[in-house]
Structure formats: C-alpha cells, structure tokens
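Hi! If you just cloned this repository, the fastest way to understand the data is to look at a raw example. We've pasted two of them here, unedited. The first protein comes first, obviously.
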Amino acid sequence: MKKAVLTLSAVALALSMAACSEKPVEPQKPIADTQAQQNVDNVLLAEFKGPYNGVPAFDKMSLADLKPALEKGMALNLAEIDEIANNPEPANFQNTIVEMERAGSELSRVFTYWGIWSSNKSSQEFREIQQEMAPVISSFRSKITQNKKLFERVKAVYESEELATLTSEEQRITWMTYNGFARNGATLNDEDKKRYADINQELASLHTQFSNNVLADEENYVLYLEQDQLAGLPESFVNAAAGMAEARDNKGKYAITNTRSSMDPFLTYSEDRALREKVWNTYYSRGDNGDEYDNNELIKKILTLRHERIKLLGYDNYAQWRLEDRMAKTPERAMDLMEKVWPAAIARVKEEVADMQAIADAEGANISIEPWDYRFYAEKVRKDKYALDSDEVKQYLQLDKLREAMFFVAGELFNFEFTPVAEGKVPVFHPDVKVWDVTDKTSGEHIGLWYLDPFARQGKRSGAWATTYRSYTTFDGKKTVLSSNNSNFVKGAEGEPTLISWDDAETYFHEFGHALHFLSANVAYPSSHSGVRDYTEFQSQLLERWLLTDEVINNYLVHYKTGEPIPQTLVTKIKNASTFNEGFKTTEYMSSAIMDLLYHTTDPAKIEPDSFERDELTRLGMPKEVVMRHRTTQFGHIFSGEGYAAAYYGYMWAEVLTSDAAEAFAEAPGGFYDKEVGDRLVKYLFSVRNAMDPEEAYRKFRGRDARVEALMRDRGFPVTSED
C-alpha cells in the first residue's frame, strides 16, 4: 500500500524528478561542463556499478557518508539547475525540460540509500541525521521551485508553438513541470516566496518527527508472554513469537510486537480478553501516550502550516489545492464517493456485531462486543456461518509458494520470467533480502531486477510497500528497472515455512502489483513515473484478484506439511465468504479517509486532534466497535509526509476502478487470463505510467468510465442504481 523512498514537503512532481532523475549516458545536447560532471568518491553518490546495468552498493553504504553525500549531491544538482536557468539560448523543450529531466543523478542515488535507512534499517543515528537534514533538503527544493529564471524558461516552453509539435508524453511532462512550479509558489512575490519556503522547511522537520515518534512507540512497546498466556494462538504464530523474543534476548518467552502483523493475528486468536484489550490499546495508542513521542501538538502545527501555505496560493483549503490535479479534482467529489459507500458500510457493521454478540451470548461470555473483541468473534462467526477457519486456510498459504504464484501471474499477463540471482552477485542491505532477474519470456531481454525484503525486524517500519531504485527511461539510452517489495511478515520458526493469513496474501499480491507497474513501464522520461495518487493504487489492487483464480489456487496453495493442494471444499468456503467482514474492513478504512478530508477542509484553528477525531466520528455515526484503521496520531500516510495528505480516499477511488476492471476480465471468454483484455491491461493501465491522463487511459482499456456499482457488488452492499 505504501510506495515511497523519501517523503518530503510539497514539491512539484516534475521538479522532484529534476532532483532525482537519472544521469544521462549520451546527452543529446549536453550542457556545459560543470561540477556535476566530476567524478565523485563518495559511494552514495557514485554511479551504480556491476551487473544488470549497475546496482546499488548496499554492501558498502555507511551512515558516515550520508550527510556529506546529501550536501554534495544538492550542490551538484543546483549547479545543473542554475546552468539550465541561465542558458543564453531561447528556451525550448530540449534545452529546458529535457535538461531538467537529466539533472540530479548523483542526488537520486543518495536518496536510494536514504530510503533504505529510513524504511528498512532505521537507527537512532540515522534519525538524528534525518531530523537535521529534512529542513535542509526542503530548502534545497525550494531553491528550485522558486528559481525565477528557471520558471520563466519552463513557462516559455509551455506557452510556445513548439508544444504542439511534441509527442503526447512530452506535452504531458511539460504541463506537469509548469503546473508543478505554479502550484508550488513560483508565481508568488518575493516575501511570500520566502514564507512559502520557510513553511516547507518547518513541515519537513515536523513530518520527520511525526514518523520517528510512531516508530519509537512501535519499538518501545513489546509484550512478552509466558507459556500459560498463549491459549488460542496458532502454533505457527507461537513459534514465530518465540523467535521474535529470542531475537530480542528474551529466549523462553513470546514477543507480541507493536505492529499490525503481530497485533492482528493476536487479536484474532487469543482467548485472553484482558490481553487482547492490552494489545489493542497499545497498538491504537501509538503517538497518543502523552509522553515525549506524543503527536497531537505536531498534528496541529502541521495542519496550521499547510493551511497557511495554500492560503498564500489563493486556495480555500489544503484539500482543494491537493486534489486539483488528481482524478477526483475536488474534495467534494472525493467526499461524494465516500458518502455513497459509508451508509452501507456502517449498516453492515451493525449486522456483523449482531452476529458476534449472538455467539458471545450463546457462550455465556456476559460481555458487550468491544473493538478488541471484533477480530476474535468475527473469526467465530466465520467458522459458524461459513465453516471457515482462518488458521486452516493459513496452512495452505506459504510465503514462498505465493511468491511462485505471483511469478506465474506475471508470466501469463506480462510475459515476465523471474530467475533467482545467485547470492553475492548483487549486494543487499540485509541477509533476508533476495533478488531475481526479470526477463522477457520470449526474447530473453533483460527487464530489470526485483528485490524482496519480506520479514519484520527492529528498525524496519511497519506495513508493506514497494519502491524503485531505478526506473525505466529511454530518452538517454535505455535504463532498466530496479524494483523492490518490502513487507513485515513474522518469519516462520527455523526450518519451517512462513505461513500468512489470507489478508496478508492479498497484500503480498497488492504490493507485487506495484512492482509489475514499475517493471512493465514503457515511457521515455523520468517525470512520466510521477504518480497520480488516486490512480496509482488501482493497478496493485487489481492484481489481488488473481489470488482467487483457479490457476493459482490449484497449483500454489498447498499444505505446508503434506504438500496436498487446498481442498475444493475449502476453496468454496473462501469464495462464499469473500464479502465476510466487509463492513469492518470498509468502515475502518473509510473512517480514516473521511477524517483525512475533514482535517484538510477544516480551519486548523478549530481543530484539537483528539477531540476532533472523536467528535467527527460520532457525528458520522462511527460504530463504537470499530476504530479508524489509522488513528490520527499514527496516521503516517498524511502526517509523516504529504504523499497521501487529503488523498487517502484514493484507495477507494482506485477500488472503484479495480472492481469495474475486474468485471471486464470476468466477462471475457478467457476470464482473468484472457489474452485480449490482458493485452489492453498492460498497454493502457500498466506500461503508460503517468505519460497519459489516467481517465483517458482507463477509457481506452474499458471503453467507458468506471462505475461505482461494481464496487458495491464486490463488497456485497446494496446496489441502488446503474448507469
């Protein structure tokens, strides 16, 4: 779900690429020699060397090099930008837009390593550097967005007659570059520009502090259990918890870490209600404990600064500014989608709670269902209604086998083949990381590499995400892809496979969908990889659908002990229960999405985060048995950066596209492996990235706009109308 190497303050899409694009091999019209062309000796700045067109030197990265590399990389990039801005020749696409696309390769490589330290192997030493450098990086980016001469050249290209002669991709990246400047302060007067830049620096520090506070709470709160506290927990989970405890020097105990991958199964299976409540409270209190890591005041400051900044640009609220260039266009359209689905979601929660309460009453539990009971009793309802035991399903969901299934799907749809890279041939940043060579099955052409970092560990942020270390471009010679998937699965005990839940299996496919989006790219310029937030989740959500195809079920879902395929009776139960607990899942997500929009359409002066969250959810009729998927104080999507700020609704927007596109496959003669529909999928929905307007791309695939009714059918909600 999360795809970011480095989250920074608001920066133009095209300009962030100007700072992070790849270094040219053979420039078509090279700018004059500058310091940017000099050889560098810092490994974090150096060109990727070795096989596969060069790979990151993860085995040589040192934190001692990070700050000097950032400082030098920014200096080199600014020298390139100044040379573009001061070019005495009239501005045109080649000497302005293309040169901006070329600029900043050294800094791009530094950010690759920064992302590893930030997400995969954080430490106190890194966090201190991060806290110090975040505002410096923001200031650097403001120097680009506020370079008056550079903006005038970009504007000249955008308004030139030449624009009509460019390719559609070149026209789009010119528009994105111009729009990025205009939306990020380039048109302001000098005084307002300075304030705009100062706000960005302040926000960069606050975003970093927010993220580090959440990570601190995740690391500081670990619950160690004794043998007599394990009632109800599956054997695989117990073994994994023992391994986690031993890794933390508590051999003989069982560690429940403060992450979703540990919390979720514990709340599903533990029979100890008091412990469930404790684990639930600890997890959902991250950033909200009234201590040095509390995020409430940070949230107020972040919202206030964002509001002040967009007022400088003439917008009424932050969401209005954020959504202007997204598919939704306005916060009203985004909220309208939420309001269409919300009533059905909370109505379904009421039904789900009634089913759970009936079981609790029948067992003589003498309780009223609370949030820490929801997963536990939902599992009982699942068994009662569908005779479906989640732990039984888990025995057929081996991480390695699921990876093979994903490779199979990639081969059928994208014609990709994945071959393991021999250990030691490509440097990795942790022994758990494995690498595959991705080639075209027919021609054998090298497409790129796929890195996989699947397991939870200390210093790694929670959740699952995908990223790239290098993206596909052709404008300066073909650059192959370096893609990565990252998860936080609890590693199986020594000698045993890692077993995961059905939800985790869907997430595994989801993140692989992002990787396929990277690997299948067929664009010329770096800026074409800048995503439209309410669209970029669509491709990955869609890939989840292949997990339930017969080809995957029959060949890759086998019992981890016997090797026997999953019984058809169990498959039928899974399909019959496909909309089970949809009220809970939709409501916990949508409450976060709605609150995000409310935070960014409300005057910050009227917001106290704790009471605002509580009061608004009450007004919305939020069921007391469900909590936001991301409570405000731990909502990293929107407060540790701005990538999803006022845009978390995008998962739902993308889900409408997903459901509608899935029906296109379901209606096709070949089902989900139909050749014609699959070809359109790759051509219009994956390979074009952001080189084509997403709405236009979807219409080319489907022949029409997506319809929300498909989403309602998917979730088992009432469908009241049809276009």
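Ok, and the second one:
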Amino acid sequence: MPATHQVRNQPPDRAPYDPWSEDVALQEGLAREGAEWAAPDLRALGVLTGDPDWLERGRAANENPPELRTHDRHGHRLDAVRYHPAYHDLLGAGITHGLAAAPWRDDAPAGAHVARAAKYILWPQLDSGTLCPMTMTYAVVPSLATQPDLAAEWLPRATTSVYDPAFRPAHEKAGATFGMAMTEKQGGSDVRANATRARPLEDGTPGTSFRLTGHKWFCSAPMSDAFLALARITEDEDDDTPPSCFLIPRWLPDGRRNAFALQRLKDKLGDRSNASSEVEFDDTVGWLVGEPDKGVRTIMQMVAHTRLDCVVGAAGWMRHGLAEAAHHTAHRHAFGARLAEQPLMRGVLADLALESEAATAVALRLARAFERASTDPHEAGVQRIATPAAKYWVCKRAPMHAAEALECLGGNGYVEESPMPRLYRQSPLNGIWEGSGNVQALDLLRAIVRHPEAVEAVDEELDAAAGADARLDAAVGTLRKQLAEPVEARARQLAERLAVCLQGALLVRHGAPAVADAFCATRLAETPPGAFGTLPSEADTDAILARAHPALA
C-alpha cells in the first residue's frame, strides 16, 4: 500500500467479543437476585451477541427497515409488513434464548424473570428493535391470565421458545407473538380518552366476542399474531363508559383474516428494525379480556411489565455505550498516550461506568420484585413504588449516557459505520414508551397516596443500607420528607431522588466500595454534577475502571 494509505492509530474491530464475560456487575447482579443457575445460558448468549455474523444481522435489519404491503397485485387487502430476513433471524434467536414469555412457563425455575432481565441487558448490543415484540409477548401474560379461556388457548403458544414468522392463523403455529394498540390521536398517554367502540357480536362466534370500530395511533409490532386493545362497549360516540380490554387476533378461528387495516408505518427516529403502525378497526372481531369497563386496570398489568423492560433495556444501552467507549479509548492514542490512560478521559469513563452499574443494579432488583410480587407483599410494594421512579430516572439518563459515550469515540462515533449513531437514536425511546416522564411522576404520586404499605416496603429497602454511608443517610432523610408530603409540581424531583437513593442503597450494600463511594459523592449531592466526567478528585477511578471493563484494567 502507498505510505499515505497505511492505517495507524485506529482501534481494531471489537468483534468477536463476549459482553457477558466483560460485565462483572451483571454477573454479580444475576447471582445476587437469585438466578445464578442461569450463568451458562448468559454465557452462551454473550458469545452470540458478540459474534460478527450476528452483529451483521443487526446492522442489516436496521439498514433495511420494514415495508408495508397494503394490497396484493390484484388489489386485495394484505395489511402485511415485510421484514428483512435478518430481523426474523434475530427475533427467532431471542425467543429461543428465552427473552420473550419463557419465564412464565410452569416449569420455569425460580429466578427466571431475573435471568431474562440479564439477557435483555445483553441483547441491545445486537439489536433493540426485536426487543419490542419480545417485551409485549412477555408482558401480555398477566393480562391474559385474567381471562382463563383465552389464556388456555394463547399462553402455551406465547410461552414457547419457538418463533414462526409465517403469516397464517395462530392455531396452525407452534409459537405466537403479541402486540398492543392502546393510544389514539386524541389521547396519547391519556388512554381513557378512547374513541374506539365495541358492540356485542351475536353470530355464533365462540367466547365473549365483539366488533370493534376505531383508529389506533400506535400499534406496535403489527405482524404479531394477536394484540390487546382498549375500546368502549357502546355504540354512542358521546357515551363515556370506561374502556374495556380486548384480544384481537390477526386471524379468526375459521381461518379468515380479521379486519386489521394498517394505514401506515411510523418513520421513527430509532428502533428502525421494528415496525410501528397506525391501524384501523372496522368491524374487527375482538374477545373481552377481564371485566367489562375495567380495561385500563386489565391492560395496565401488561403495561407494568413493559415498564420493567424499559428500565432493563435502558441499562443495556448504557452498558453497550460504555463497552464501545472502553474499547475505542483503550486502543486510540492522542497526545502521546492511550486515551484511556489520560486523566480527563478516565474521569469520563469512570462516570459512565458508575451510571451503567447503578442502572444494572436497580433493573435486576426490580426484576426480582416483579417475579415475587404475586406471593410476597414486600416485593409487591417495591414493584409498585420503584417501577415509576426507576423508569423515570434510568430512561432519562440513557440519552445523556449515549451522547457522552459517543463523544468518547470522537468523529469515529458519529459516522453510521459505528454502532453509536444507532444507539444514540434508540436511547430516548424508553423514556417515551409506556408513559413519558410526567406520566411516571404522576403514577408515583398516586402509588404513594393510595398504597402506604408500598412506601413502607421501599423504606425497608433503604433501611437495609442505613449507617453505611452518611451521604446516603442524608439523602434518604430528605427523601422521606418528600414522601410524607408529595407535591405534584415537584413530582419529578421526587422520582429522581427516590431512584438514586434506591441505586445508592444497592451499591452501598452490594457494590464495590469504590463504585459506591463515587456514586454517593456525586448522585446524592444536593447539587449533582451536570455532565459526565466531573467526579471528585478523591474518587478511585482506577478501581472503578478495572471493574468496569477488561480493556480499562
């Protein structure tokens, strides 16, 4: 090669790599939260998520987004979405590895939901778009369980490890995936502002069936086999009867396609490999799930589990950004030394590592609460209070974390050949999906007022770390005053304070001393730092970085 084309001072390709073996905090969290038995599964998934061939599938699925086919060449309605083959490969691998509804199987061991959460943290290093249908297939189970006849029909297919992408009736398939269609143009997060109507169906169709008419502004993963949606059981447009919840299959029991008219696919900022759509119901057949007029309560069981995945997914994005930054700075030289050896960069990397580890800790703790909530009142209380706080804060931190991690790569991180632009575009999603920041803050206020026993459960979690760090004790004292007199105008501050106190308590109890000390010195300060990379001089960055990633040891 000519001398001008010799490539120097560029990092080697990161792949192949093993994100599981690189992540000490994830390994410790898996064991701490009761799923150490799943370590071999995580090890196998780690090899897959760092495999160059699978990473290429992730790239291809995102560079070739889904296409809507409304009609066939003869003019018949199709209402189908065509995906790149790589998308089906990825979704199939994720379901096979248990990222969908496998933890709900009767034979699933204790800790299965924690193990799934740990896998979910690894998966974004391949692709995030396929997480959407896996999340909804996972989250639909508690809502469907309220309707035993539908549960008996659908849950065996939802909880299998088989993925069948064929567009055909679900009863002909071994596995099924689920979607959700809640929001409408006029309501958005206010799902009670629902204009879709349902009227009883009296043509011999089995079950409690209805015909729905309406338009859903967001329908996620529209090629799923079935969906949950809300509609009012009335034909009067002015009737404000509370909405009910319905299961809407793409195919009817007799093999006919249900009326499910896809109007368009959303052209989204991120999540490009996955399709999101608008859909119209025109005498669309749906089956009642749960009690009539109690649809919000029924579907909120599904929403709660999708919010868990918002936290877990955001933790996965942070880990991905940190790993890419660590790899680049460990191999790139500037001003006579590796970037990772220079004090300012080490401060940035250590700060990113703190945020990533804190997010991982609270995500796995929350997964344990979800797993045990049905039988343990304490865990139910933790779930109720910690979910909106963690979703609010961890998802708010993800875009800032992605931006700083991208900056560590400089211009190399800004070009589309890098994984960082895709990560950056993806990072705001979970803060929006299933209730934005204000919705989470308001949900937290409602939980505090209506469920004092849940506040007591969180108190117990914080008490377990009492006396270990004076800064944490002071922050918890302030938090308790805010919990005693919650004010809507300061609900965001309350959600943030609660989330960082829970993270601090987990790190003080279980984390490395250097990590816990630096976290408490910054995140629990009265005026937290505004940017990553401003750790106090006494922070043990060497210890933090040695733990964070092998490339930084």
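That's it. A detail worth noticing about the second one: The radius of gyration is 24 Å.
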